[in-house]
Amino acid sequence: MERKALLLVCDGLADRPVRELGGRTPLEAASTPNLDALAQAGITGIADPVAPGVRAGSDTSHLAILGYDPRRVYTGRGPFEAAGMGLRVEPGDVAWRCNFASVDSNLVVLDRRAGRIADTLPLVKALQEIELPEVEVELGSLGYRCALVFRGEGLSHRVSDTDPHATGVKVKPAEPLDGSREAMHTARLLNTFSEKAHRVLEAHELNRRRQEAGNPPANYLLARGAGIVPELESFSQRYGMMGACIATTAIIKGIARLAGMEVVEAEREYIARARQALQVLERCEFLLMNIKEADEAAHDHSPERKVEVIESIDAMVGELMQFAEDNYIVVLSDHTTPCSVGDHCGDTVPVLIAGPEVRSDAVAAFSERACASGGLGRIRGMDIMPILLDLLNRSEKYGA
Ligand SMILES: [Zn+2]
Fold it and tell me: Which end of the chain is more exposed for a tag (fewer CB within 10 A), N or C?
């Protein structure tokens, strides 16, 4: 029988001991009977998402967990955001993530999100008319968030952000980050585009109406996170399995799309998500499921909410227990997001693998500290897929 695999990435799940929780981490404080049962039946360990001490982003960590070396394929966040928004991107394109922002007549940023403007499609349509010499321009947006793609010869991602990342200061001109002709050329193109975009947006009917209604105009496009669209070997080619992804965030969807995986928009409710996962696993061999909410609670410095989210995730895992009897399930966090820090840090994360032929260890709880004595020891994100393929008997033999 062909066994299947579910890789459940609980975003930012791992944490540090929290004083309000009696020195326990949210994962230790939460009641997690299902995750603990999987830990008991399975093998556990801890992982460095990228390498010891590296503060991985969700993007670089997910690339590593899927077996794509981020140090080779990752140059910036832009390409993954653009692909996640459903834009057509091709290897070699340069992409940025952008915000529709409000600036005054001196180009001083008043609001980096233009009052969280919701309907930006008419603006994107108008911006698509902008012509640049020898470069094809593509745009897509989701509310105030936007992605910008340049396609053409001689482009580079080595250009600085035009986004000053603050209000009350002027937008920045893009500058080349190295001495190459490509970086200079791309910086010049982005500056030309930004000026033209500003003129188009200033004159746009939608912004006139916004100002009449007392709303800040979306009259500037702030760009950041330039990256080159990488050429990723497709997941199915690399592993001989059809892969799918269930996620809510554009960046994770973008990674899956660039790896040629089917992308499914996640259900909102946790139990519905488990059923959705089992449904998707009927038609493919591998599913990556990203659950974002624990990370959001940690970014908001809320250990209480993080505990609640973890308990909801555990209830969802309860629906997946039967699947793990005949198939493999991997549960891990893509990075540590301590509630005390409100951002990612480079600590290790707990990992568990459960399934029919796993050599179980003595660990009977799923947590940062319990898993540290598990049979997997300390591994890296890039080790997950080889270990999983081996359990699935899909590994190629190394040597005779
Ligand atoms: Zn993450």
Answer: C
- Residue 260: pLDDT above 80? yes
Which two tokens mark 229?
Answer: 């669209």
Residues 6+ apart with CB under 8 A from 110: 101, 102, 103, 104, 167, 216
DSSP 168: S
pLDDT in tens, 135-158: 999 999 999 999 999 999 999 999
Structural contact between residues 77 and 194, judged by C-beta atoms closer than 8 angstroms: no
Crossing angle for the helix pair 303-318 and 33-41, nearest 10 degrees? 60
Q: Are 226 and 159 within 8 A, CB to CB?
A: yes
Q: Tell me, in angstroms, the distance from the centre of ligand 1 to residue 312's CA.
A: 18
Could you tell me the distance, in angstroms and rounded to a whole number, from the CA of residue 291 to the centre of ligand 1? 9
Q: Which two three-digit tokens encode residue 131?
A: 């012509």
Q: How far is the CA of 129 from the centre of ligand 1 (A)?
A: 35
CA of 242 to the centre of ligand 1 (A): 24
Average pLDDT, integer, range 170-199: 98
- pTM (2 d.p.): 0.93
SS3 (DSSP) at 203: coil
55 CA distance to ligand 1 centroid (A)? 11
* Span from the CA of 61 to the centroid of ligand 1 (angstroms): 7
Residue pair 227/78 in contact (Cβ under 8 Å)? The answer is yes
Nearest 5°: phi and psi at 107? 65, 25
Tell how far the Cα of 144 is from the centroid of ligand 1, in angstroms. Answer: 21
Q: 335 alpha carbon to ligand 1 midpoint, in Å?
A: 6
Give the residue from 59, 84, 83, 87 showing the smallest Cα distance to 73.
59
Q: 258 C-alpha vs ligand 1 centroid, how far in Å?
A: 18
pLDDT of residue 2: 87
Pair 380, 64: CB distance under 8 Å: yes
Q: How far is the CA of 12 from the centre of ligand 1 (A)?
A: 5
